[in-house]
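Protocol step 4 of 5: obtain the predicted structure for the target chain.
Materials: sequence only (see below). No template structures provided, no constraints applied. The aim of this step is simply to have a reference model before the mutagenesis design in step 5. Sequence pasted as it appears in the construct record:
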Amino acid sequence: FETKPAFTESKSRDSNANNTAVPESLDTDSVLSFLGHLGVSRHEVHKRIADSIQKQLEEEIRKAEIPKSESAYQGPLVNLLKNSWHYGTTVPEFRPILWSVLKKLGEQTPEQVLKALAERESPGSSRLKHNEVFQPLPPLLKRLVWEADWDDIITVNKELSVKDPQEYLQLVQSTLFHATVHPIIEQYCSTEALADTAGKFFVISVAERRFATNQRRALAYTATGKTPTSTTSLLGKGSSNSNQRPSAASPFAESGKAVSQLRNLLGEATGGTAAYRPKLLHALLSMLMAHHGATAPQILTGTHLHCTLLADILLSAGGPLPKIYTHVHKLARILDDAVKSGDFSDEALATVQSTLKEIYDAEAGDSNDLEKEEETGAEKKKTPSKESKPDGVDKPNPFLQRQLNRIITAGIQAMKETDPQNLFLNPVTDTIAPGYSQVIKKPMSISTMENKIDANVYNGIDDWNADVKQMFKNCMDYNRGAAGQWFRGEANRQMKIFKDEILPQAKKLYDAEVKKRNPEEELKRKREDDNGGKKISPLPASAKKRKISKDTELTLSMPALASMLLADPFVVRLLLSRLLRSIRIDVIK
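Step 4 output (structure tokens):
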């Protein structure tokens, strides 16, 4: 490791000619004999020396630097790993050295080593050949081993060539990651209360169809472990248990525990978020698809909880999902909201149809479709709408203004609870953040929003939403580089909670207040819907073929994942209820 030796060097007579330095010799026999007379055995002496050398070596390994710019690191640590591999896998005393090297290498661990750690004792066996070395490894290295083993067994060509569901399931079951994850999946699917509830396809009332989905998955919590307070409960509009974490005595505690374990296996918490590793997420979703495909012929005789678990995994992500899952994640959120409400509205069905169309179009297009769509969406936002009105034109009446202020105040309180460090509470000054005013031209903070509430500046939820986006954008723009990674992670985490939980509730509450106080507008909207509003009609069959790049590492079919989300038993019973209602209306007509 290019360190200087601590022993004293001297030149021997034989080495003078070559000018070579040799270490000074030490007669150990006399020292050991003297220690023996003192009652110290040679075994104890050797053990202490070995422990000291081991600690020094581990310290040298810890101090060694690995250049991040190199894609394949080849340095002294890799050489040490090669030389110590045989001893570390056969002699228990050498394993701490091996673990220290692997821990230090991390993502730079050679693929051959990862595959060797995943090697089985014999073909078809589930027991690892080097299980004693694998089990104490930190979570990151275990994830790397799972990924290497998955790539080795299920190649892209093999995954695309297998047509029989049972054959594909057997292929998935031979992976190390399946052996780790399958017991957790079974724990989720065998949750008695969840299976009983999912098996009730034909229920009469909306209250029976309504299900608090957060109970079954213990959704993402704040860094302090507190559940974000909903704006509904803050305004006293009735308490809802949809955001409550299941207690140990909850009938859905086992399913929540299973989802929590899967989240921990898929990714590590960094910067306040728990982003999934793309390869492991792909592997887990492939497993769920394989198990579902093997039992798909059981239409209404099975509960299909693998589909329910798919939705819970997508919705429990603490960080952003890979871009390929954008539309599927959107569909999962729409269906989840419908399950919570216990009914499918026309608007929700229309949104589901448009999302399905986006999924099929993206699947048939190239890999840049999502980026093109984001650019198109950004252009649309820049183009002013004909129906948009300048600020101040559509000012709410005094009563609605008070209700709007109450709703935004409740939303801000919920935001404070998701920000335990008070990062966004007060305005940022140049004293706190040098050069802040030169980088950020539109500063924004929570206290600034509260001042605007007091001054009745906000004319609607969208005005408040714009300020919140500006606040998080300022944080991202200022905190660039490695030093600002934690702050960017916190901004992303809090923005996701605001976007997924706080903002939708605020919009829903304000829309309800507008409908109550403006009956003429509501009547006008209903008439427009009757005359030319959105009408639900079947989607045309898709004739587009799926395009898969040869260079891609993720081969999951997004339409297949969408079909699993629609096959979720909690969604199926909503669709059945909607179908029966349509039949009754047609019969009456």
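Step 4 remarks: The longest helix spans residues 485-517. The longest strand covers residues 9-10.
Proceed to step 5.
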